[in-house]
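User: Could you go from structure to sequence for me? I need the amino acid at each position, not a summary. Structure tokens:
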């Protein structure tokens, strides 16, 4: 009886991929932002980050155009540095565009928060701290 209940609960959780996808997407956003920050420091230049809540795309660019005309190459040179939301995942942000300067500092004077929401309401937040540019996911 107990095994049946546990199996029922486990199978229900395995079928709910929305939360897993949202968590993975939040991690991908954090990695994208960290790499953009590191590239800004390494190249001693502004690196632009665009967050498009309509399309669910977060990308890093060498220019201020949105969508960007000069995307930053992904590590390894395969494609562009970006994170695309999986189907059903919602994206909100406090800043649609910001930059990292050559010191790795963001252009905003307050925290940048990017929230990722699963269909079941579970939310994950990626935060960029002002001044330091520290990127964290919670």
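Assistant: Here is the amino acid at each position, in order:
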């Amino acid at each position: 009886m107990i095994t049946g209940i546990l199996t029922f609960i486990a199978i229900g959780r395995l079928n709910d991929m929305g939360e897993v996808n949202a968590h993975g997407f939040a991690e991908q956003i954090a990695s994208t932002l960290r790499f953009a920050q590191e590239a800004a420091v390494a190249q001693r230049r502004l690196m632009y980050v665009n967050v498009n809540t309509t399309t669910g795309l977060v990308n890093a660019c060498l220019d201020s155009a949105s969508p960007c005309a000069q995307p930053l190459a992904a590590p390894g040179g395969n494609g562009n540095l970006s994170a695309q939301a999986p189907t059903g995942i919602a994206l909100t942000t406090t800043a649609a565009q910001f930059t990292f300067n050559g010191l790795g500092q963001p252009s905003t004077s307050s925290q940048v928060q990017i929230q990722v929401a699963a269909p079941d309401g579970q939310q994950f937040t990626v935060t960029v701290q002002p001044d330091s540019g520290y990127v964290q996911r919670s």
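One structural detail worth keeping in mind: The chain has one domain: 2-137.
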